[in-house]
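Below: protein 1.
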Amino acid sequence: MAPMRRGLVHAIAWSLATGASVTLSWWGVHTVMSGTVYDRPRALPINADTPTTQGSKPQVSSSGKPPEDTAEPSSHDRPDEPTQDDPEPPYEHARETSEEVTPSSEKTTPSESFEPPASPSSSEPPRRAEVYPRDGGKVIFDIGPTSATLASARPKAGWRMEVHEDTHWIRVVFTKDGRESSVFCRWETGTPRVEFYDK
């Protein structure tokens, strides 16, 4: 009977000691926790007109938690929504135009109404080639109603030839050993006329 009583006493003493130590530990932790004061998080005002850069960091309060952003996004941050009054993008018009008219759809065909160049009208004054042989050579003039041109001039063997031209006359001169034979065509008064000089 004595040993059982002694064991019961020891058990009661151990229980009391354990309960006392747990109570002291809880009391110490409660005292430390109650002595610590935490600041309540404050909501910072956000200006909607001030854009935030990509590299900016959110502010953190003393409690270690970032403030909650309760402000609604401003009109600057919202994407533009299409409206019925907005015109269509220009590229759609360009696509429609390219579909309607393309280089491949435009084919160039020879004109069936092509006409050859018209020949000189018969109403134009006729021109004639006049040949004038001389001792020193031969001269050919293309003579028209109001003017003339030199078509050809060729000296004979041993003769030299010189051609002088002006606005209203042409002169061809053949020379040899002091001799001179010339053909002179002039039209300053209207109709061309041809004159000859030999010496």
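Below: protein 2.
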Amino acid sequence: MGNGANWSINWQTALEKIQEHNLSAALEIILETVGYEPENMALINLLADCYYYLGEFDRAKACWEEVLRLNPANQEAKNKIGRYKTPSFQSWLKRYKHALYNIEQKNYEAALGSLRELLGENDGFVSVYQFLGLCYMACAEYDQARIVWQKGLERDIGNETLSDYLNMISDKNEKTLDATVEEKQVSKRKVGTNLPIQKAALALTAAACLLLLFKTGVTPDQGKAFQNQDATLSGQVAAHEAIDEKAAEDSPVSSNNLLIEEERSRGGSDYDLEKEKVYYREGYNAYQEGNLKKATSNLGVVVSMNTGNYLNREALYYLARSCYLQKNYEEAEAYYLQYLEQFPGTNYYDDSLFYLGVVYDATGQEEKAVEALTEMQRISPNCGYESSDFFKSVMKDK
């Protein structure tokens, strides 16, 4: 890479990987590049995004703090660390860490219940899917574990850990799995830990193993690159108070100057495609951070472009969900119906049917709620939603 001379190319490539929901690939690219550009704020902000979506919250926070050390006026880092520190997210994070503690204590049923609640509140963090699947496995609910991990892979299509677990669980040979989980995962990914992993039943071994992976955080290849970044972050500032959380909250697109300038230099369809990527990234990031007004604004722009491509599909689903979470049921219903019409048989088809049923129930349309859930059950049996309390209550006499 010529000592980082082409960092902007790598930044753009990593950004595209994030937009394609390939967080693991983006992380590898950024970790390699940031070793040559340890004070590049655009790279560090993008690195923070990867860590955040993967569920590496402490590292994401460390990246934002490093950006603010380099430039206290950096608006992107200020906004994101501000939302990270909000009471609502801190409450979510505290419950998440308690769920991980329950896994460490082998209290899998309690952890499972907590993680299901947390996933219902925010469905964008890959680590929640990883640990929830392991809890299902520990409780011998193998089909549910498979479903949850498949959902996790939709958020990070390059996640080797989830792929390995899915491949192993598909064998349906628990004795073989028990012998291979520790060998295959720990030797491949563990980065310096003194905690022993005892050979036990499949679920216990898997849960302990992945919890160790979560704590160590990176693969051996990533670890070497991360050492450079870790050294840079080691002396960062302690706290940044009085962060303006309202800055650029409601207006579509608030950053990144480099990409925006790159857009303006283009024309025609290339410009439109770049613009679509910018609005999608801003909207999806806002959704992840709980800034639903900004998410609705930016994702609405992408949906209105009506390109019919991957980003258009993703934007439509998250626009529907943003409206649903804001209890704007009329618009949520319209967008879920639009998704079902435009993108049948795709990743979020069963999700859209389920939440359409929830919307119908919330607006007093009980018959339509039953119809939506019945269709979901028909096209995607054992999809995971059938075990929810809502599904059971609506369909109990059906």
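The chain has 21 helices and no strands.
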